[in-house]
Design goal:
The structure is a single chain. The protein folds into 2 domains: 3-48, no CATH class; 52-108. The protein has 3 helices and 5 strands. The protein has helices at 50-77, 82-87, 90-104; strands spanning 3-10, 13-19, 25-31, 38-41, 44-47. The strands form 2 sheets. It has a 3-stranded antiparallel sheet with strand order 1-2-3, with no helix packed on it. A two-stranded antiparallel sheet has the order 4-5. α1 (50-77) packs antiparallel against α3 (90-104). The radius of gyration is 25 Å and the shape is elongated.
Length: 123
């Protein structure tokens, strides 16, 4: 395990003053493509792989898409009052039921979250 006491980041390199034991102190440089590859916790630095970064970006995008979906559910679907619902014909009600379910099923789409098709809101 590498315990980093000081690190200096400059474009594509990180320089570390490292301690592998209590008495062993040395300097090492590592190539780092960008700051997003660095992960520092409790004075321990690890360099993330591209796969780890891609996974983090996918999780972040999934969270953004879910928030947008949740807003559509709240504003477009859940705001329909009983009075409005009862005034709709059965086919229009079914369109809204289908739309709401399609929004709920959005994360189940094969390309989620990178490639999704938003359902069309009923008129």
């Amino acid at each position: 395990m590498i315990y980093a006491k000081t690190y200096i980041y400059n474009d594509t390199k990180i320089g570390l003053v490292i301690k592998e034991t209590r008495d062993d102190i040395s300097w090492q440089e590592f190539d780092v493509p960008s700051p997003e590859y660095l992960h520092l916790v409790n004075d321990v630095i690890t360099i993330k792989t591209q796969a780890e970064i891609d996974a983090e970006k996918t999780l972040e995008l999934a969270s953004i898409v879910r928030r947008e979906r949740d807003m559509k559910l709240k504003i477009e679907c859940d705001s329909i009052t009983t009075l409005i619902w009862n005034s709709m014909i059965a086919t229009k009600q079914q369109e809204w039921v289908n739309y709401r379910q399609a929004l709920l099923d959005l994360p189940l789409q094969p390309g989620f979250p990178m490639n999704i098709t938003w359902p069309v809101k009923p008129i």
